Amino acid sequence: MSTLEAIIWNILGYSAMPLIFLGGFAATAVVACFLIDKLGKKEH
Fold first, then answer.
1. What is the pLDDT at residue 41?
2. Confidence of residue 43 (pLDDT cuts 50, 70, 90)
3. For the chain, first and last CA: distance in Å?
4. Max CA-CA distance within the chain?
5. Collapsing DSSP states into helix, strand and coil, what is residue 3?
6. pLDDT score for 1
7. What is the spatial distance between Cα 16 and Cα 8, in angstroms, rounded to a whole number?
8. Sign of CA pseudo-dihedral 18, 12, 23, 21
9. DSSP string, 4-42
10. What pLDDT, on the 0 to 100 scale, is given for residue 35?
């Protein structure tokens, strides 16, 4: 069980950083598109 746990923690450790980076990038893109859409409709 300890070997399995070590493998699981290694996978979680290595996958956490890209997931956080991609998740933040996606959230920023969604917020940016939302703000651009709202500002564009208000201006016109």
1. 81
2. low
3. 62
4. 62
5. helix
6. 79
7. 12
8. negative
9. HHHHHHHHHHHHHHHHHHHHHHHHHHHHHHHHHHHHHHH
10. 93
Question: In residues, how long is the chain?
Answer: 44
Torsion sign, CA atoms 31, 32, 37, 38: positive
- The string of pLDDT tens digits covering residues 10-32 is 999 999 999 999 999 999 999 99
> Distance (Å, rounded) from C-alpha 23 to C-alpha 4?
27
Kindly state the tokens that stand for 41: 């409709």
Tokens of 19: 């997931």
Buried b (16+ CB within 10 A) or exposed e, 2-25: eeeeeeeeeeeeeeeeeeeeeeee
